[in-house]
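step 4 of 6: structure.
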Amino acid sequence: MTAFLNQCFSGLAMGGIFAILALSLVMIFQATALLNFAQGEMAMASTYLAWQLIQHGVPYWLAFVLTVILSFAAGVLIERLIIRRFASAPVLTVVIVFIALVFIIDSMVGWIFGYQLQEFPSPFPEHNWFNNPLVSSHQSGILLVTLVVMSVVWAFFRFTTLGLAMRAAAQNPASSRLVGIKVGWMLALGWGLAAAIGAIAGMMAAPIVYLDPSMMSSLLLYGFAGAVLGGINNPWGAVLGGLLVGVSVNLVGAYLVGTQLQLAVALTMIIGILLVRPSGLFGHTIVTRV
Amino acid sequence: MTILLDVKGLKAGYGPVEVVHGLDFTVEDGGVTALLGANGAGKTTILRALCGMIRREGSLLFEGRDLCPMTTEEIVRRGIAHVPDGRGTFTGLTVSENLTLGAYVRRDKAAIADDLAEIFALFPRLKERLFQQAGTLSGGEQQMLAIARALMLRPRLLLLDEPSFGLAPLVVKDIFATLREINAKRKVSLLIVEQNARAALDLADHAVLIETGTVALAGPASLVSADDAVRRAYLGY
């Protein structure tokens, strides 16, 4: 029983990382109806940035905050300098740009930092909190961070005028301009937020999967699975989806098929969901009267 | 009366196609100008051009300043609100959120609250449906919401594109009565595009008849509606 609960909790912790990644994917998808394939590599680059800061002796949480802020700025810049130029390009062109970004970021980071695995510190204590036998402090820390990220993002979109303007710009760009919203900047902000959220996912994942330029590639696929499972147009669905994918993949890996097939399980989930319920478990359909 | 909007030589279109070929018309401060004409005459295009939603050229003086080099967001900040065709409400957001967005460029919180109270007096139905998704409102309610959202800007000039479209005659009557009140009490000037010429002429002090992107006739609304030949030829009643 303890082993089973252990697996559940470690699945839940990984699920937290998938959930944060899924949230960052949804952020851009809601505004542009595009899945940013480079989200994982952007998160990886952010994590290297945090690692470099920590190597230079910056305290962990300061490095964390700096990384989030700089990643936000980088996300805004990527949208303003690159993505914006393809605003009216066909979807396929944008997808190719995303894939190009994946390889550009990947090889730039590899060129600067090398390809060997690096250890990345966890901000949480080494011994389990309250000496519980089930869940390590890093695992519970991830869940805590997931909750905080979720609440902050939710409050931002729910209670601030800027968040409302971003939602409006995503739904109806023409009307948004007519009330004075600068729609282009809202997209850039969306990219910034996605990059900042992705950076958190990267920093939470790195102590588990170690730091190297390809660390996010499989994590991003789990993030996709989470987003598709929960509903790609619903941020909270995506978070729940991420957690569900984390637990189910871990349990299936531990008890049924072995760890080598975990990624295959996630991809099977994607295909299955797209076949059975394309809008995802919590994807919403807006009721409209004409 | 002073002139609020003075349009001269307006040309506008979509891509390479020019739809409006050099138009002149004015809206007086506190006045109501109606743009009338058949389908495809270019009425909607004129409103879109004024707001900078499409490519345009000419002189568009609003309170003495040319709108032509401005972006849509800057034009909105000058106090021009646009109720576009198809209403342009945010269907996925609540009524309350739609109204908040209407005042997006304003920073005067106290005055915004006052305006909201006045709007609820004007459209009591909206207050009942405050936390309902705008997409679930009836057509008439959505039109009310679109106008209310535009009023939240506290505009100098309100552009209305076919406010009667798709609505039952009684609802149209309601909407036009409200527009009259908005014009009279809140001193908002109106530029209104309408198929329903009778309702529009009733409200307007100036009428401009548009035919394939040019002005066919312009003058005081009472004269235009009194001219039998014009009525039969252009307005169809």
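step 5 of 6: annotate
 - The mean pLDDT of chain B is 90.
 - The beta strands of chain B are 3-14, 17-28, 32-36, 55-62, 65-66, 80-83, 157-161, 189-194, 206-211, 214-220.
step 6 of 6: archive
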